[in-house]
Amino acid sequence: MDILVVGAGIVGLAVARALARRGHAVIVAEAEGAIGTGISARNSEVIHGGMYYPAGSLRARHCVAGAAMLAAFCDSHGIAYRRCGKLIVATAEAECDAIAALKARGDANGVPGLALLDGAEARALEPNLACVAALHAPGTGIVDSHGLMLALQGDLEDAGGAIAFDSRITEIARRPEGWSVTVNGEALPFEAVVNAAGLEAQAVAGAVEAYPAARIPRQVLAKGSYFGCTGRPAFSRLIYPAPVEGGLGIHLTLDLAGRMRFGPDVEWVETLDYRVDPARADHFARAIRRYWPGLPDGVLTPDYAGIRPKLTGPGEPAADFRIDGPAEHGLPGLVHLFGIESPGLTSSLSLAEDVADRLVGA
């Protein structure tokens, strides 16, 4: 089949690669001038374990499977990654039940190696940590996300696929032989279309004339800022607080060089604004000192911000990934991906195979 994938972020590239490796002719239409300039460029670069998501959900299934697939892919392609492990910490007795619930959920999802620790056991691993209990997730890691995207692009191109940059889509019309997609004013024929446009997924879905508008979910934007930290690293593992509404709390992550950074927080916004407000450093410092009381004054520096395309907002339960394919909407050769936020990076290779199965099997 001649297939168009919309969006050259991590998930779009993974989908395009999977389809091209199955023998299809694949073009990726990317609105910007480079791969991975949106959500994929503005995240924590964490390989998640899968303990946060309800059993049986797409997020749970694809995170657990995707983490294993991602490690194998990095090994085979020489992509830098490290399984540094993670501690999810309870800083007060009232949070211990939440930590225990994450352990039970992770066990149900098949996350390997999870262990509940008391405060002394956690501090034996990370002496600078303050907590009364922790969940140790040794399989959690960090990855060079740009290197990952370049490798996905390389595999796609090796399989005969290509990326068309600076390509904006204004209309997708149903035709007897498939789809007519208007790209930069020119109508081009494709047998199938995959919408992996991330923050623009709802807009692309709205350009499909035969797709019911009622099926397009609302999009809620959650901005997450990150702050860097000067000085020597105080931790060797990722440190996460108990989850908060809309996110996983202001956590400590490490890059592959060992540099510490903190975030993201959750700020519900209406527009795409990637500026980091330096004044948020005080809010960050208060949150960080709950698990790292020794955070020195004045070491937090604005780093970057990302925006997550959520399907639910404040006070609402977190939504699952939504894959809307032919079995759901009845239109052959069309798959939409909505709400692909965290753990989208970790899930990308598993999601790609799922999308390819739905599309080709339709």
How would you characterize this protein structure?
This protein is of the alpha+beta class and 362 residues long. The chain has two domains: 2-47 and 146-217 and 319-360, FAD/NAD(P)-binding domain, CATH 3.50.50.60; 83-140 and 219-310, D-Amino Acid Oxidase, Chain A, domain 2 (2-Layer Sandwich), CATH 3.30.9.10. 28% of the residues lie in helices and 28% in strands. The strands form five sheets. A six-stranded mixed β-sheet has the order 9-2-1-13-21-20. The radius of gyration is 21 Å and the shape is elongated. The relative contact order is 0.20. The mean pLDDT is 96.
Instruction: Give the helix level as a range of percent.
Output: 25-40%
Show unreliable segments: none
Please give the largest β-sheet: 6 strands, mixed
SSE order in H/E notation? Answer: EHEEHEEHEHEEHEEEEEHEEEEEHEEHEH
Radius of gyration computed on alpha carbons:
21 Å
Major beta sheet, strand line-up: 9-2-1-13-21-20
Q: What is the CATH third-level topology name of the largest domain?
A: FAD/NAD(P)-binding domain
How far is it from the N-terminal to the C-terminal residue, by CA?
Answer: 12 Å
Mean pLDDT value: 96
CATH architecture classification of the largest domain? 3-Layer(bba) Sandwich
Structural class: alpha+beta
Q: Output the number of helix runs.
A: 9
Number of strands: 21
CATH homologous superfamily title of the largest domain: FAD/NAD(P)-binding domain
- The amount of beta strand, in percent, is 25-35%
| Domain module count | 2
Silhouette: elongated
The CATH first-level class of the largest domain comes to Alpha Beta
